[in-house]
Amino acid sequence: NADVAMYYAKDKGRNNYQFFSSEMNARAQERLSVENYLRLALRRGELVVHYQPRMKVATGELAGVEALIRWQHPRRGLLPPNRFIEVAEESGLIVPIGEWVIENACKQVRQWQLAAKKDLQLSVNVSIGQVIDGDRLFAAVQRALALSGIDPATLELELTESLLMQNIDEKVALLNRLGKLGVGLAIDDFGTGYSSLSYLKALPVDSIKIDSSFVRDIHADPNDEAIIRAILAMAHSMGLRVVAEGVETPEQLAALRELGCDEYQGFLTSAALPAEEFEQRYVK
Ligand code: C2E
Ligand code: MG
Ligand code: MG
Ligand code: MG
């Protein structure tokens, strides 16, 4: 890895060489080694999907699951996405990894739907690298639907606002194609991006996930409550479903119920679980 890092440094020209400090070198090496191991991890089957239940606020019923990737590292243990998603993005590995997640999660949820004889929804996160090659994402979704036999309407893709705002026209075209397949679209981390709300009109959005930062103090901070109330009013008048993220306490849930929020996810009910555990608790 050191050799590769040096090669890149030299490649930038003699004058730049001196600026390639040892600190940068260490960081580049770290990055390259994460990338190489991540590539192997995908091949060796070390990536796993965990499932977090999403509940209906009014009834407490299970509404669906969100697929959340983890890396079962042989030495470092179970790694959350923030330890490797960025490298996956920058290296382009997010494309095959994302395809693997969609296919895997669709197959798993189809099994659960059959076993539970229930209409369980599935949400899958999609990141920028996957959306840039729209044709490939579209093909991957079609393939996952066909291989799993899942009803397209039970799959929802989660995208963030900032991701949607770049080259919005291309996004609209891709998301309309996916929408025609029957696949849903959710705006993730809603409220955290610097975006105009006009994309809500332009895109075939089905639901909004209010970022956990607004939920945390909802029962204590009148401003957070006002923001959530406003999001709910707007979303509901547009016919969108609203999900609150990061619900950890009964007080937060009570406040959301009072405000008329549709669904929630959070540690109050459960963190994301390995497939077997999810199955034991929610399917069998
Ligand atoms: P996200 O899609 O906004 O997912 C919500 C995150 O909040 C998850 O973290 C979840 O485990 C965590 N969470 C859920 N309930 C609570 C709670 O009550 N309290 C707190 N503090 N946290 C809670 P996780 O699994 O670490 O995922 C982080 C992010 O990584 C996700 O944010 C998503 O943007 C990305 N990600 C996860 N899986 C995938 C994937 O398969 N593909 C892509 N492209 N991105 C993924
Ligand atoms: Mg999400
Ligand atoms: Mg989120
Ligand atoms: Mg996120």
Automatic annotation (TrEMBL):
Annotated EAL domain residues: 31-284
Superkingdom of this protein's organism: Bacteria
Name listed for the protein in its UniProt record: PAS domain S-box-containing protein/diguanylate cyclase (GGDEF) domain-containing protein
Organism: Usitatibacter palustris
